[in-house]
Amino acid sequence: MPLESLKKLSLNELITRLHESIGSFSRNISKLTERNRELTLVDIIELRNHVKKKLEAHEESAENERLLKLIELFKDDKNALELARIDVDEWIDFLDAIKFHLEQSKGALSKEEQEEIRDIEKLREDITRLQAVLRKG
């Protein structure tokens, strides 16, 4: 969604969309990283070394070159997914900060903002559950 469209949303709508987005991302990334853990880094290195030996022996060079590139790509993707998994922790910190800010700034808000905060407080339980899911991931 373009930034201009996001600016038109209320705070409640923004947090709701953030909540949904992080939840979806977390579920997807958790599934991917779990599947990737089935093949360990040791397995990848052993497979890469095996392919390199075949290349050195000039066996099926074209196919082994492609296999080596695929192995390297998988290794990089595996690492990228793990880094993305770490980013989820940072997103949890953002949610914690939002919750803290909302709790601390109630008195300084207009009546309209206070009404929005009451709606947001209903989301607090969902945010807390999401944080628990993200931390388990």
Topology, please?
Layout: H1 3-7, H2 11-36, H3 41-56, H4 61-104, H5 111-136
Helix pairs in contact: 2-4, 2-5, 3-4, 4-5
Keywords, please?
single chain; 137 residues; mainly alpha; 5 helices; 0% strand
Question: Summary?
Answer:
The protein has 137 residues and is mostly helical. The relative contact order is 0.14.
Give a written overview of the molecule.
There is one protein chain. The chain has 137 residues and is an all-alpha fold. Helices cover 85% and strands 0% of the residues. The protein contains 5 helices and no strands. It has helices at residues 3-7, 11-36, 41-56, 61-104, 111-136. The radius of gyration is 23 Å and the shape is elongated.
Cα(first) to Cα(last) distance is: 26 Å
Q: Beta-strand percentage?
A: under 5%
Order of helices and strands: HHHHH
Query: How many β-strand runs?
Result: 0
Q: Report the major sheet.
A: none
Helix residue percentage: over 70%
Shape: elongated
Structural class, from secondary structure content? mainly alpha
Low-confidence stretches: none
**Average pLDDT, all residues:** 78
* Total helical elements: 5
- Rg, Cα atoms, Å: 23 Å
